[in-house]
Amino acid sequence: MDSLKSEISAIAARLVVEEGLAYGPAKRRAVRQMGLPSRSALPANEEVEDAVMEHIALFCAQTQPGELLALRRLALLWMERLSAFAPHLAGAVWHGSATRQSDVHLDLFCDDSKSAELMLIDQHVNYLAHSVAGWHGATVAALSVHAFCAELNEEIGVHMLIYDLDDLRGALRQDPKGRSPRGNLTAVRQLLHEPTA
């Protein structure tokens, strides 16, 4: 990675960790902060993720493991609540780079895209329905809630992306680092029992 992309990655990583920005917006803001042209070549998300882990190791080594554990426990609660929809944890909470600024991202797999929404209505959960870019940039329905995390004593965003049940087959294809991009209930329970969790 060239030095300019390295610098963009480092600034973006700080924004991700300290402000909870997603990688895309963090990279674009880093470019603006550096006074670079808006069409500057950006580092790949994997490069930013590496910089996030370096930033955490340098500045958050004492607090991040506990915050990550709290977020994974919150994710597990919601996954158990949504177990009828084959929930899979994704993003920073799954990969281990989450801090208290991070949101929980769950992928749900449904026969009927409205079934998860109906379940939230039945349980009197306030949510926001919207559309976001899912895998490969395709637009998918999403449901977002604010869930109180007692361990962190604050509200955490929980975002549920709704996929067709058939999409579950491709859900565990490895990412460029050879990792599974998401994990099911069993995998998340295993994470919570690992000594480094």
The helix fraction, in percent, is 40-55%
Report mean pLDDT, rounded to a whole number.
Answer: 92
The CATH topology label of the largest domain is Beta Polymerase, domain 2
**H and E string:** HHHHEHEHEEEEH
Distance between the termini: 30 Å
- Let me know the number of strands: 6
Main β-sheet description = 6 strands, mixed
CATH homologous superfamily grouping of the largest domain? Beta Polymerase, domain 2
Rg value: 17 Å
Ordered list of secondary-structure elements with their pairings:
Layout: H1 3-19, H2 23-33, H3 45-59, H4 64-81, E1 88-90, H5 91-95, E2 104-110, H6 115-122, E3 128-133, E4 139-149, E5 154-164, E6 182-183, H7 185-193
Parallel strand pairs: 2-5
Antiparallel strand pairs: 1-2, 1-6, 3-4, 4-5
